[in-house]
């Protein structure tokens, strides 16, 4: 199935401003977000379509490529043709569009520094309540001696003789005349003749950085916090990349988390399940009382509304689900065994009245064996 026009996806005109694009994206992303449309394949597909359209139109170079060449301009997926030399039609256009429109790695490096990722391990309590943590990481930043130029102080990079300082060279391929990044200066337009002694001409040096990171309440495993400008340096006059702090959840000894809901299993004595009562249970906000009605069965799940996790995006509270499980007593004394024996006999006298499930099962078993007998 062919892709829809990106402007049509966002519902904007082709001359829409950046603000118009952002407003349209926020409105549609909120409308079709998976958290608001659970188990809806259509909404999930629309959400991905909106994200893809905005990622292209919000980037000025990708948008220029899309306006001129459509989807092919940003995907750089051109079919090979005949009569274009050994490199092939697809190879030529893949390289050229990568350089001009930022699809290739060289174009991306020329615009800004590299992004970094840091994995941060959090306890359930830290993720649910929010926390400020100090992190240490290594990154490459502009050299302080040469300010990222790569040249020895007092000297300057020279104009590249290959591209005459343009950063681009023109290549003739058949009847096509195409431009691509100069391989001598990597698109900078200059070459370093007298390298900086501190960075040896690279313009970047490695440093260790310490940052205090504020993690908002409600994050989950895999969520990321972006720290703008804390990635690697991009060279003289260019912006550094970003640092992405990715949350990694540690296993909790009591709770399991699934989205905004928490789950736990509570061992309960047989007598409490039979007679009913109250049980102290843990929550992330402290102790709570769980009322157990008489004649409750093992494996029954109780729901405590609003005792789960507050969603980091919409602020809604999840629930806490407690499954009660009967614990068979161990290390019984002789007196306790005698009492249990008498109790079991008293139940047998009551028959179906006391144990309807067991008696029903016994009847089914008896019927099953009767049918086997010829």
Features:
374 residues; four-stranded mixed sheet; HSP40/DNAj peptide-binding domain; alpha+beta; elongated; 32% helix
Structure, explained:
Helix content is 32%, strand content 25%. With 374 residues, it is of the alpha+beta class. Among the domains are: 113-148 and 204-251, Urease metallochaperone UreE, N-terminal domain (HSP40/DNAj peptide-binding domain, Sandwich); 256-326, Urease metallochaperone UreE, N-terminal domain (HSP40/DNAj peptide-binding domain), CATH 2.60.260; 342-372, no CATH class. It has a 4-stranded mixed sheet. A 3-stranded mixed sheet has the order 1-9-8. It is elongated, with a radius of gyration of 33 Å.
Helix-and-strand structural type = alpha+beta
Per CATH, the class of one domain reads Mainly Beta
What can be said about the biggest beta sheet? 4 strands, mixed
Helix content: 25-40%
What is the CATH homology-level superfamily of one domain?
Answer: Urease metallochaperone UreE, N-terminal domain
**Low-confidence runs (pLDDT<50, min 5 residues)?**
76-110
- On the 0 to 100 scale, the average pLDDT is 81
Radius of gyration: 33 Å
| Portion in beta strands | 25-35%
Query: Strand order of the main beta sheet, please?
Result: 10-11-15-14
Q: Which fold name corresponds to the CATH topology of one domain? A: HSP40/DNAj peptide-binding domain
Please trace the helix and strand order, writing H or E for each element.
HHHHHHHEHEEEEEEEEEEHEEEEHH
End-to-end distance, in Å?
Answer: 62 Å
The number of helical segments is: 11
